[in-house]
Amino acid sequence: MPPTSLSTAGLAPAHRQVLASGRWFAHLPSPLQQALCREARVVSLRAGEVLFHRGDANTGLFGMLDGAICFGAVNPAGREFVAGRAEPPHWFGEVALIDGGTRTHRAWADTPATLAHVPLAAITRWLDAHPAHWQYIGQLAVHKLRVMFDVVEDAGLHTARERLVRCLVGLARAYGQRDAPPADTLRISQERLGTMLALSRQTVNELMQALERERLVECRRGRVRLLDLPRLLALDASLD
């Protein structure tokens, strides 16, 4: 299914500001920043709309401007597995760019989402002309690899409650991709938290109720408000 809407090339100042809030983009050389913004098209997706499927051909890089994109798979029975979730100002799509392969996971809009899409031809043309800039594409991939190692380690070492706290803190910090202070409100459902942590909805609900009783969070439909960020950050730090 094609995206809901697709703009002409170039990003508006407000969109550039969103991307500039991201640590990866903010530390790129200015010419590369300008090239990405100049070549980007703005894509809008409805909630549930698929951006690409596993095995699809590489179409370029994507930067999150609004909303959330999930990465994972769905089995024949309709059960979802969520390997990751991207929100502004995350970028993704670099794996297929690096190895020349196809998309590794299905990507779909968890909420209405807006993205900056830099077509494959444009980013390839730039990298061919500026091969030293490949290191920044590699840095984007390596950061996600580090996050993945942490998630695997947490699954083997920590309780469900500890993993939930770490997940909430990671989302608030955009997993280290945003220089701004952690967000105090997360646009995510308990069901989605369950699929991200491989926990049942009932288990997540019980854990969230316990965190509410401790005045650490407040749950609303599709949202989690972090009431005591300092305590949550301290709990997360104690797990290292």
From TrEMBL:
<dbReference type="InterPro" id="IPR050397">
    <property type="entry name" value="Env_Response_Regulators"/>
</dbReference>
<dbReference type="GO" id="GO:0005829">
    <property type="term" value="C:cytosol"/>
</dbReference>
<dbReference type="GO" id="GO:0003700">
    <property type="term" value="F:DNA-binding transcription factor activity"/>
</dbReference>
<keyword id="KW-0238">DNA-binding</keyword>
<feature type="domain" description="Cyclic nucleotide-binding">
    <location>
        <begin position="24"/>
        <end position="127"/>
    </location>
</feature>
<dbReference type="InterPro" id="IPR036388">
    <property type="entry name" value="WH-like_DNA-bd_sf"/>
</dbReference>
<keyword id="KW-0805">Transcription regulation</keyword>
<feature type="domain" description="HTH crp-type">
    <location>
        <begin position="158"/>
        <end position="230"/>
    </location>
</feature>
<dbReference type="InterPro" id="IPR036390">
    <property type="entry name" value="WH_DNA-bd_sf"/>
</dbReference>
<dbReference type="InterPro" id="IPR012318">
    <property type="entry name" value="HTH_CRP"/>
</dbReference>
<keyword id="KW-0804">Transcription</keyword>
<dbReference type="InterPro" id="IPR014710">
    <property type="entry name" value="RmlC-like_jellyroll"/>
</dbReference>
<dbReference type="Pfam" id="PF00027">
    <property type="entry name" value="cNMP_binding"/>
</dbReference>
<dbReference type="InterPro" id="IPR000595">
    <property type="entry name" value="cNMP-bd_dom"/>
</dbReference>
<dbReference type="InterPro" id="IPR018490">
    <property type="entry name" value="cNMP-bd_dom_sf"/>
</dbReference>
<protein>
    <submittedName>
        <fullName>CRP-like cAMP-binding protein</fullName>
    </submittedName>
</protein>
<dbReference type="GO" id="GO:0003677">
    <property type="term" value="F:DNA binding"/>
</dbReference>
<dbReference type="Pfam" id="PF13545">
    <property type="entry name" value="HTH_Crp_2"/>
</dbReference>
